[in-house]
Amino acid sequence: ITIVMLLVVSLISSMTHIFSLEYMKGDIRYNRYYAYLGLFTFSMNGIVLANNLMSLYIFWELVGVSSYLLIGHWFEKHSAADASKKAFLTNRVGDIGFFIGIMIMFTAIGSFNFQQLFTGVSNELISGSLLTFAGLGLFMGAVGKSSQFPLHIWLPDAMEGPTPVSALMHAATMVAAGVYLTVRLFPLFTFEALTIIAYVGGFTAIFAATIAITQNDIKKVLAYSTVSQLGYMILAVGVGNYVAAFFHLLTHAMFKACLFYGSGSVIHAMHHSLHELHDHDTDPQDMRNMGGFRSKMPITSLTMSIATLAIAGVPLFSGFLSKDAILAGTLSYVQHHRQHWVLAFFGFGAAAITAFYMFRLIFLTFYGEPKMPKVFEGIHESPKVMIYPLIILAALSFFIFYTLPY
What we know:
By secondary structure, the chain is mainly alpha-helical. It is built from 18 helices and no strands. The radius of gyration is 21 Å and the shape is globular.
């Protein structure tokens, strides 16, 4: 688990550092931005490499701090300053539960080490409703970080940060920490705790997907999409199919980061075009101001379309493999526990809606007639430094990398 997660964190983080070279060029706090990015990557690697709950908790809080700094990078914008505070405080709510869970575990077993915790639970040093309660406490940490209902409110607002930050935090690494935690501590959850986890995840998946349909801001659509996909992963953990959850974490990191960089590329082009027209009123992120960009931005269009096919679960793409595994696990769980049939409805419903809102995003942005012809004239493909990460991640959205014989 650790090796795969390290691969995800270091790959997406490297891509973000490269992509930001051009995207953040000329930014007033360029140096500080890279310092925060380094701090974030360090904290995230700390979470992945921790072998006990105490270290994990320290790095967990460090990630919280660095996310606060990155989301509030342009703090002179009130919306960005508010969003960073909201993210920080919402995460604290989840972390209180996480801390209580850690303390219950330590009090009962006398160790923070994962291996000793698993041994302690198998020797029944802690069991019954207390273990369920402790498991739900630990899960609260994941609810905050992975923005599950009802603590999902911070993630869409966190889009106020720079786009490469959104790709790093809200696609691949920070929000995946919660899923990573539940997979890592899977043996500590009782059946009752897992049932609650499955319902929280399933509801989040379909609930966020329905919101994504109505959004017009290109990054907000991707934000709610992320909340929905994280719900999927948590649902998979809840039905006991933690391997599928982790697999989806890996595939999702690739295509969602690709989508975020693609949206960053589009926003970058919009900014330049509007800047040349001295237009400071038009929203560069509103999809209703776009349309027909495919002819001007062929590479961005192609890479985003590939990532969209992957997230929609079309065969021959990575998303098909991981979503199929999650839905198979959910279906099998429902067949054994008929009273929980609604979990299958959550899973398949969210899958159908995902394809709808993602293709809506692609069609509004890259197809049809240009909504604003003057702006359209100034649109051009992004620089090479921003294109390379897109191409690499689009390539990693194909099935072949995940099915090679090992």
